[in-house]
Design brief:
Blueprint (H helix, E strand, L loop, with lengths): L1 E11 L3 H12 L4 E5 L12 E2 L1 H7 L5 H7 L1 E3 L1 E6 L2 E6 L13 E3 L2 H14 L4 E3 L2 E6 L7 E6 L5 E11 L6 H6 L3 E18 L6 E5 L4 E6 L6 E6 L13 H12 L4 E18 L3 E2 L2 E3 L5 E2 L7 H20 L6 H29 L3 H18 L3 H11 L13 E2 L21 H4 L5 E6 L7 H8 L6 E7 L8 E5 L5 E6 L4 H10 L3 H21 L6
Parallel strand pairs: 1-2, 1-11, 2-8, 5-13, 11-18, 20-24, 21-22
Antiparallel strand pairs: 3-7, 4-7, 5-6, 9-10, 10-11, 12-15, 12-16, 13-14, 14-15, 16-19, 17-18, 21-23, 23-24
Helix pairs in contact: 1-4, 1-7, 7-8
Length: 539
């Protein structure tokens, strides 16, 4: 067995969630490795859409423009209901504060390709064919002990301060950490395919909804023009045999009455859907992100996006704690911030899926007769459309109740609040705050801010605090100061030029280098005493 190696973070799983986590760890200079038991990345499409918030979150790595160039920005949905077709605009309202006001249809294979190329260019190698066999993530120990097996059968011992399971629904990290995965399987069976379809209007997503169920078509660029998802009819006896194009045509004809012609499939498969969530997102030195923490139906294109945002919430926190620039308590905010998001996604997708697929007579009647009449009326209400689109696009996610967000004194009544994401306008604030670290935004007339005094008061923070004077162009009215976290969410906000509350916030979450070193010594001393009390004779 190879000698032990010590890391800050071991990332297990190199899907989109693990790759995004690795990109952020690299940006902050963390010592990490990323492994995956599969020999190659995904080649089929799997997840097929990237939400506006995810495009924003990935932009600091310089990959978003490439993702957009490869994808198909979707702005229209056609719902084909019995007797009529409803034309629904996607993200045409309520998304004025993002540079990406669209749902980007792009296969997971392409997303992984772009993220993998970014890491490779940065000198990070994804170690494929490497499997986590077991680990001990006990919190009281300084590191998690891990045993890896490589493709040729050789084994290696690795110690890491933290291990993150981005290894999917059958997560080894989750199992080794002893974290429960609760939920249920849906009874319906589905088919999935990437293929060509004649008879579909291009440039839009299409959904066919009947009493029997649904079939969906989403526009892609690669590996085929369309992704098809269809529910098998009740009692379909073909579900146990390999999927072929004849089965797909028979299923679609049951929903669409022969108006579409399917051809040239790139890949086809049966699949089942589940609704399950991890009981905890952390156990000792082990964390979960993405499908290892939550799996659900593809309703609303939430899955991959939620996973990527899990990892980008966690990555900077791990990196700052590992470099001694932030207290260990910062890691506790990962679960408190992301677990509610995961639970909301599970609820949202479950309700949407149930409405679309249930055999309940009332819901079948609603799908076939009530929805065609109410949908156009509801979509005429701008506030309802805006709220729905901001929810689906994940722009509405916030951490207002987090311990790592604070509303200071005299906070303005208008503009984003502490815990909200930083908007993408005015003045391209997201691009301005893309560099790793915290960003202090000073809003109001330039002359009211003593920038030399501010620099002196905020110095000594390991080059992780950047100051920007916005003048009157910021999103807040009057004289305001605002601290943006590394994940582009607002950590602190207050009115006026008194920075006492801001410095108190920084002292807690981003202490000066000398204060952080003292805190580390105190923490280590307490840890040694804690471990000693559990030794021989201890209780």
């Amino acid at each position: 067995m190879a000698a032990s190696q010590s890391l800050d973070v071991l990332v297990v799983g190199a899907g989109p969630t693990g790759l995004a986590l690795a990109a952020q760890l690299h940006a902050y200079g963390a010592r990490f490795r990323i492994i995956d038991r599969h020999l190659d990345r995904a080649r089929e499409s799997r997840a097929l859409a990237i939400q506006p918030r995810t495009l924003e979150a990935l932009a600091p790595f310089g990959v978003t423009d490439e993702l957009v160039a490869r994808g198909n920005p979707g702005v229209q949905l056609r719902m084909h209901l019995p007797g009529r077709t409803v034309r629904l605009p996607l993200f045409d309202i309520g998304v004025a504060d993002t540079p990406y006001p669209f749902l980007l249809f792009l296969s997971q294979a392409e997303t992984e390709s772009v993220l993998g190329a970014h890491l490779a260019a940065a000198g990070t190698t994804v170690e494929r064919g490497t499997e986590l066999l077991d680990m001990d993530p006990t919190a009281e120990k300084a590191h998690a002990a891990c045993r890896l097996r490589h493709q040729g059968g050789s084994e290696e011992e690795v110690t890491a301060r933290y291990v993150v399971g981005c290894d999917g629904a059958h997560s080894t990290v989750r199992e080794q950490a002893g974290i429960g995965f609760e939920g249920y399987a849906y009874p319906q069976a589905f088919v999935l395919a990437d293929l060509e379809v004649d008879g579909l209007e291009k440039g839009a997503a299409h959904g066919y909804m009947t009493e029997a169920g649904i079939v969906l078509f989403f526009p892609l660029v690669s590996p085929a023009s369309w992704r098809m998802i269809a529910m098998r009819p009740p009692g379909d006896t073909e579900a146990e045999s390999p999927v072929d194009i004849g089965q797909l045509e028979a299923i679609v004809d049951g929903y669409v009455s022969g108006r579409l012609h399917l051809r040239d499939p790139v890949w086809m498969t049966d699949f089942r859907l589940y609704n399950r969530g991890a009981k905890n997102y952390r156990a000792g030195r082990a964390f979960l992100a993405g499908d290892a923490a939550h799996i659900h139906s593809p309703a609303g294109a939430q899955g991959m996006n939620t996973g990527i945002q899990d990892s980008l919430n966690l990555g900077w926190k791990l990196a700052l704690v590992c470099r001694g620039a932030a207290p260990d308590a910062l890691l506790d905010t990962y679960e408190s911030e992301r677990a509610p998001v995961g639970r909301n996604v599970l609820r949202f997708t479950d309700r949407a899926f149930t409405i679309a697929t249930s055999r309940n007579p009332l819901l079948k009647l609603a799908r076939a007769h009530v929805a065609p009449r109410l949908a156009p009326l509801a979509l005429r209400l701008p506030f309802l459309r805006a709220a729905a689109f901001r929810t689906v696009s994940q722009l509405a996610i916030h951490y207002r109740r987090s311990l790592a967000t604070t509303e200071g004194p005299h906070s303005p009544r208008h503009g984003p609040r502490a815990g909200d994401r930083l908007p993408g306008s005015p003045g391209d604030l997201q691009a301005m705050t893309a560099a790793p670290g915290y960003h202090l935004l000073l809003c109001g007339r330039h002359e009211v801010w003593d920038t030399d005094g501010i620099a002196a008061a905020t110095g000594g923070r390991d080059h992780l605090l950047h100051v920007h004077t916005l003048g009157t162009s910021g999103p807040w009215r009057g004289i305001t100061h605002c601290l943006v976290r590394p994940d582009a969410y607002i950590g602190y906000r207050a009115g006026g030029t008194d920075l006492t509350g801001l410095l108190r916030y920084l002292d807690r979450w981003l202490p000066r280098a000398d204060e952080a070193a003292h805190s580390d010594r105190v923490t280590e001393s307490r840890s040694r005493r804690s471990r000693g009390s559990r030794g021989p004779g201890g209780r």
